[in-house]
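2024-03-11 09:14:02 INFO receiving multi-entity request
2024-03-11 09:14:02 INFO entity count = four
2024-03-11 09:14:03 INFO echoing inputs for audit
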Amino acid sequence: MPQVAESYFSLAPLAAVFVSLIAAVLISLSSRKPNLRETWTIVAALCKFAVVSSMLPAVLSGLRPEITLFDIAPGVSLALKADPLGLSFALSASLLWIFTSFYSIGYMRALKEHDQTRYFASFALCLSATMGIAFAANLMTFFIFYEVLTISTYPLVIHKESPAAISAGRKYLAFLLSGGVALLLAVGLTQRVAGTLNFTPGGFLSVSMGQAGLLALFSLFLVGVGAKSGLMPLHSWLPTAMIAPTPVSALLHAVAVVKAGVFGFARVMGFVFGPELAGEIGATTLTAVIAGATIVIASLLAMAQDNLKRRLAYSTVGHLSYIILGTVLLAPAGWLGGLFHITTHAAMKITLFFCAGAIYVKTGRENVSELDGIGRQMPITMAAFTVGALGLAGLPPVGGFLSKWFLAQGTVETGQPILLAVLLLSGLLNAGYLFPIVIRAFFKSSKDFTKFDEAAPLMVVPLLFTAAFSVLLGIYPDGIFHFYSLSAEAALGVVARGAP
Amino acid sequence: MSALAGNYTYYITAFLLAIGLYGMIGKKNLLKKLIGMNIFQTAIFLFFIHGAVKPGTTVPVLDSRIGMDAAAYINPLPHVLILTAIVVSVATTGVALALLITIYRRYGSLEETTILERMKQSS
Amino acid sequence: MSHLPVLIPITLLLSAFLIPLAGYVKRDFAFAIASVGAFLAFAFSLRGLLMVLSQGEIRYHLGGWAPPIGIEYVLDALSAFMAAVVTLIGLVVLIYSRRSVLHEVPQRVVPLYALAMLLLAGLVGIIVTGDLFNLFVFLEISSLSAYALMAIGDDRAPVASFRYLILGSIAGSFYVLGVGFLYFSTGSLNMADVAQRLPALYQSRAVAAAAIFIFIALGLKMALFPLHLWLPDVYTYAPSAVTALIAPIMTKVSAYALIRMLLTVFQPHYLRDMLPVTSVIAWLGAAGILYGSIMAIAQSDFRRMLAYSSVSQIGYIGLGIGLANPLGLIGALLHILNHAFMKACLFLVAGSIRFRTGRWEVSSFAGLGRKMPWTMAAFTVAALSMVGIPPAAGFFSKWYLLLGGIDRGNWFFVATILLSSLLAAVYFFRVLEQVYAGRSEESAFKNVSDPPASMLFPTIILGAGVLVLGLLNSIIVSRILELVVAPLNEPRG
Amino acid sequence: MRERLENSVVEGLSRFLVPFIQIFALYVITHGHYGPGGGFQGGVILAASMMLLRLSLGEEYEHRRFSPTAASFVAAVGILIYAFAGLVPMMFGGRFLDYGYLPIPGLSPAELRYHGILIVESGVGLVVWGTLVTLFDHLLGREG
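2024-03-11 09:21:47 INFO inference complete, emitting structure
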């Protein structure tokens, strides 16, 4: 049992949030000098990653850097605290932001996109909101950054300013604001029912507050957070938001925004209700059914999509429910698998989106049917794509295998054969919609892809880094950034009601 | 009839209020609305004056014959209040008349229906 | 014996009287005196607020006549807070109005500023007075100057102003009638004195009639839902500087008077338990929220849309008052402050757009995001706050109202509050889409840019104020508003 | 209405009546504080006499004697008299509008209140007089 963690005052979490906030201001001010503007993004990404990783040793040794700013409402304060769960999410988001910044510079310049200042500024704003979500110490702070993230992603979704983009923006807002409203009601009810909003591992609600009421409260949370984490009925905004530029889909719709939803779900399940209480009031079965259905249906839908990005979007919807599935299993292994999948899925999915972007920039092609023989022209990109595809299907060398392995172990320990079947079936389905692309790229020939012609290095290098990172997660999971031990400690903290 | 004897003015006030309210809302001509407003306000003055009356008393101006006995004079406060209310009513009517003149100069009529038509045409 | 309570209205009245004289000498003196007067009034009310927070309420009776005979002015937590809000918004809008008034109604500058100061004096008088009839006098002063101010606008303004005059004088007369009933049953006009004498008379029908008349009158002046008919036309056709001055504060002062009646005159126990007045207000408020938002969605004219959104935001305040529990009322009071800032900022943006492009239709806002960046940035912050996105101020008043609604256990109110933020999102994001992602075909806006500094700076201050208010709202709530809602915590006995 | 009314009877009568009306108006103003009347009523009578002249002797002639700008100037001065009658006691230790503290030497507080009302009544008289004449000029005047 790790000793009870005590928190100590540290400015680091606040710094993590403020770094990209200041960068957003600097970016919008230096709109006339593109090179200076780009350096702000990269500098901010590096500083943020440095700040976040500076907290790593402390958190691993059981300490919790914390800062309480001021009372945002009587009895509720704006407080940030870095615990293993928050840190692993922040670490993966900030690490991938570095790659995404390089990638998006290459992407935006290759396509000579308009309004790049607004693009980079809102990107930085989104990242500061993501950090806020990761380090939120209570439901109110979480909700504030949650809504800021919704709003700061909106300009990116409507970046093209075409009628299609605007209607995608409307759909995006309709879903996420309604989710936000449901979450607001849930937070309000929790404040009145429990009197406090602070996250405590193992949950602070108790069954004495009425079984039916708690289930209703849980379903409100489910709707509120589910909208962002793409649970089946509330997922349809994600494919339409693919109209945004690819780096946006890569980082936000695969890593930051949707992961914020799932991260929120983990917070609610583990730190508001607590797994045991959730089990008692029947919340776990409710979620398991929805998540299981989402995985299977999303994977089936993914197969039917010809557009590459829409296919990846549906695959994201499916994989998010893996993480939700993890939080539903009462075994530490289940939680470990779910939490670890946050990082592995982020790495793999961002690689696939980067490949999709590179293909689009280089050949202007978006649909899977037009990708015959692309492997000859862009072998490196397609190699990285293959790595990502292997990982998503859950095959050994890549990280995806490990998280699926722990999830499967979790289902076995808690004795839920149906979920095990769902996991295995979805592995096959993933292979079903990803491998044809790989086969089409390498084994089919076509006349227009003959000579070697890769995208710009600014795009291909980040591509390789993320692929390598996914493989690193697979082979040596507790590698440089100890993602494995972070997830393990978070899982133990929640399930065994031990250290926060 | 005894109920009516003591407070017939309240019935008249209520009646005048009804007329005034009808005038303001029912009538289409703006000037008639203004007249309705004045009737409405006069009804309220009547209500206050009636409240101040004590049977068998005189005007609240100090009179050596009656002396300082307050019961001999009627209650002066409602009268003072109504003096201010009258000033307010006159001022409101003054502003309303000024508005009506500008409306008449611009639209050539005080009938609400024709004004609304001319407004639609001009917009 | 501090003169503060009376100094606030006097400085405004005095500058209102000096302006016509100075206006003859030189037209620009009018603006100078107006802003000095508004600034002094704000300084006094701020000082009053600080003194009230440290030493408790300040009572001041006029002309040496001690209450309950004399007219008494009271500065307590509620009135000092309101006075500070009204004078601050008045000051900021006045600074903004200089260029906008010169642009729109150049030949009416001197009377406009004299009337504006009279309006502010009337509103601050309502806030500060502790005498029921004196409140009527100030109510009429502010209404009369508002009728005249609104009539200065374009051709349709006099018609709208006349309709408001008729409805306003109905409200004024109902209020006097209500005060008459109260006076004839309790024998006193001083609010504190009436409050002591009322409990014995709770059974009498006259007191019930008084309560109903007064609440109808204040409901009408506050433009609470069914009685809001005058508001849209007036806000649309008055000059933009006048609307920016009237929209944020005038209806709020009537809401303040409603709260004063609820808390001080008729004890909450009477209005909540014996007469269903508060629940009627709550239901009207909730209906107003939905009606206002839906009507706002249907508008194409930007000012009309803001006018209907005002109706729905006043519905929030009505709902907060109607809930009559501590959290609900805190929500209402905080929303008075937040909405004053948000609505002032929105109307200043509307005025700046008119100043630059002279157009009102939302469809003509295409491409303004690039041409008027700072104005549109302030607009975005205010719009997001109206939709209720944290950390802007609008979210927190919704938060308290939500908690109040949950405390009351009325799920329709809770649903209305939440649904309305979605409705508000519809009509505000439609404008944001047009501004930032709209295609501007006609070249009419070639030389459009941000308005001059004297107009831009107040807009930015209000926009930033909305954010700062959001972050600091718990200081305002715990230091000021909690004192105000203390009487609500008494047991229902 | 605006030109001179070429009718000797009306002109003669109004020339004869106006002085008496104005003296009566002053009487009403000064005796307002303990008898019926007062600043408001006196001011109205004063303004009525001005209107009678404007109606009977025509606008141009009257405007030279009492022009509209003079009317609003009088109104402004009147209201300032009233305001300062309220403010001055504040400077001498009293409350707003507390005439007992007016710095007029040789008068007891009771007498001061007595005369204080007179100052206020004369201020109000001027205001009403100026305002009503301005109102009359604008309502019937040429400019919109």
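2024-03-11 09:21:48 INFO post-check: Chains A and B do not touch (no CB pair under 8 Å).
2024-03-11 09:21:48 INFO post-check: The radius of gyration of chain A is 21 Å.
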